[in-house]
Amino acid sequence: MSPEIQLIEPTGVGSLAACAGGGNVVFMDGEEGDWIHPWIDTITDATWSASVSPEGAPEYVRVSFDPSDDDQGSRWNLDLSTRRLGLPLQPQVYENAVRYPFEDPGMPGLNVSGDGRGCNRLCGRFEIHELEVDGTRLERLAATFEQSCECGTSTLRGCIVYEAP
């Protein structure tokens, strides 16, 4: 007789609470030793842009933001991808994410980079809470993420809410 298998739903990835309140916002909380963003920061005043592909059922979303405050760094990007899963992005948890755009087949992609910093290798997960797309235009994204450069012990956690102008 086979042992009984119990399926366990993955738990959510962090909280959107730090990104609540309306408008575009990114919250990043990097642990000491995190290469990308080893401090706590909330970015709201920035130049924002976004892209999705392919049209209609996106497998990839990028939100770029360049803070007005130089102390918050510059030219940040958040990439979320399911292109190597062969499925469109949708509200759910994506476990075992690796660095976008270098995902192996069957792996979701994630990348938070900016201020001249990026991971060579990345282990992480993300959750899409809301996603609204009109053709090739990202209308709204609410997501949470966790990533560790080089798959180490220091983690960058955060959330993003993007609303098209």
Q: Tell me about the biggest sheet?
A: 10 strands, mixed
Oligomer: single chain
* Cross-sheet strand order for the largest sheet: 2-1-10-9-8-6-7-5-4-3
Strand residue percentage: over 45%
Quickly count the domains. 1
Number of helices: 0
User: Which radius of gyration do the C-alpha atoms yield?
Assistant: 16 Å
N-to-C CA distance: 59 Å
* Run of helices and strands: EEEEEEEEEE
Give a count of the beta strands, DSSP E runs of length 2 or more: 10
Low-confidence stretches: none
pLDDT averaged residue by residue: 93
Structural class estimated from helices and strands: mainly beta
Shape: globular
Helix proportion range: under 10%
Structure explained in plain terms:
The protein has 165 residues and is mostly beta strands. It has one domain. The chain has strands spanning 25-30, 40-43, 46-53, 60-67, 76-81, 92-99, 109-113, 122-134, 137-149, 156-163. Strands 2-1-10-9-8-6-7-5-4-3 form a ten-stranded mixed sheet, with no helix packed on it. A hairpin with a 6-residue loop joins strand 3 (46-53) and strand 4.
